[in-house]
Design brief:
Length: about 400
């Protein structure tokens, strides 16, 4: 029967979008944090285009060689002239290309950072959604417990007439009812807190209801740590640093600047000047070596960070896997104990009719059943959150 139920839930999940899928889609469209990355990507695209283009040319005008007491053009001063000039700086194509490659790697990092944020956001939404849905399951358990208390209160009151139960037993049952109702109120308040947290994460209000089809299949124990988005993030960062090293190697190469000037002189032929200038040094100096060494050290640091991240993810995966399987075993044990306790309560109830069982024994067994049901729900919820954690990192 359990097998057929699982197949049905999987079929339902494939055929119909679940409430959780709708929440995630809503968050992808409305989350302000995710929208930030779209603007960052646009900024870097514009930056890349700017780097590949030449700097704006310079236009200048001026007067040269004027006499202080005659600040104007005159045939008596053949050295005086009015000039207009245009200059254009020309960074070497290799420098612009490598700068563009660095920005391209920054774009890849932006995409990966967005993917990481999406995964973190999805995990948080799923965890809160699981809390929200499991609050309904806990309410069901609590209401079932209250029904049991009401049932046994009637039995106690009936047996009280025949002296089989004392008044303190009925009062103890009333106290249990009040305590359970208080738990129910606390869960209702926590549900509202979780709902508001979900609204914050998805970027707006959304009509949330109970979802009895909520189902998450088991995760695979096999995984490739190298496929983790966190690993890819560091690898791309290393590639970016490698591009920066290549850029530092050509830093010493000279940039060119072309200048053209036209000079007007009164009474003399006009003149034209053309100049080419280059930046220094033409040969690699110690300063450029230091920049390259600095970038190489940065690369070594990031390579160590990569190794550490691989170890962290492997350790996390194994820890989650062990905890997940331990919880599954505990759930099986608790469910077996629960079946035994439910059979036990029936036997005690039958004995109570003949005055062969103590009311305290019934109250104790009822409380044990109640606590076991809540513990099973908590373990199932913990396993769901472990699954969501793995989905984020792998």
């Amino acid at each position: 029967m359990k097998k057929y139920l699982t197949i049905f839930l999987l079929f339902y999940k494939v055929c119909f979008a679940s409430q959780l899928d709708d929440l995630i889609s809503f968050a992808e469209k409305n989350s302000p944090k995710l929208k930030e990355f779209n603007h960052q990507k646009n900024i870097n695209s514009l930056k890349q285009s700017y780097i590949l283009s030449l700097p704006n040319p310079k236009l200048y005008v001026g007067f040269s060689n004027f006499e202080i007491n005659k600040p104007y053009l005159s045939s008596n001063n053949p050295m005086g002239s009015f000039l207009i000039g245009l200059s254009q700086e020309y960074p070497l194509p290799i420098k612009r290309y490598l700068d563009s490659q660095i920005v391209s790697k920054e774009n890849e990092l932006i995409d990966l950072n967005r993917t990481i944020l999406e995964r973190q956001l999805k995990r948080q939404i799923k965890e809160n959604y699981a809390d929200f849905i499991f609050s309904f399951r806990k309410e069901e358990v609590i209401n079932q417990q209250l029904d049991l208390y009401k049932k046994y209160k009637k039995i106690f009151e009936e047996n009280y007439k025949y002296g089989k139960v004392q008044l303190k037993d009925i009062l103890s049952l009333d106290v249990k009812v009040l305590e359970t109702q208080k738990i129910l109120e606390e869960i209702s308040k926590e549900k509202e807190i979780v709902k508001n947290q979900i609204f914050y994460l998805i970027g707006g209000d959304y009509p949330l209801n109970d979802d009895k089809t909520f189902y998450i299949e088991d995760f695979s124990e096999k995984s490739d740590v190298d496929d983790s988005v966190y690993i890819k993030q560091i690898e791309i960062d290393i590639e970016k640093t490698e591009k920066e090293i290549q850029r530092s190697k050509v830093e010493y190469l000279p940039n060119l600047e072309f200048t053209g000037e036209y000079m007007y002189r009164k009474g003399l032929p006009d003149m034209f000047t053309f100049k080419i200038s280059i930046t220094l040094p033409v040969f690699k100096s110690k300063k450029e070596d230091l920049i390259e060494i600095q970038k190489k050290e940065e690369k070594l640091i990031k390579q160590l960070q990569l190794e550490n991240e691989k170890l962290r993810i492997k350790n996390l995966f194994h820890t989650v896997n062990i905890t997940y399987n331990k919880n599954k075993q505990l759930i099986e044990i608790y469910e077996k104990i629960l079946r035994e306790k439910e059979n036990q309560i029936k036997a005690i109830e039958l004995s109570l009719k003949y005055g062969k069982a103590e009311p305290d024994e019934i109250l104790k067994t009822l409380e044990e059943i109640f606590q076991i049901k809540l513990m099973v729900l908590d373990l199932k919820l913990e396993n769901l959150k472990l699954r969501f954690k793995l989905e984020e990192i792998l």
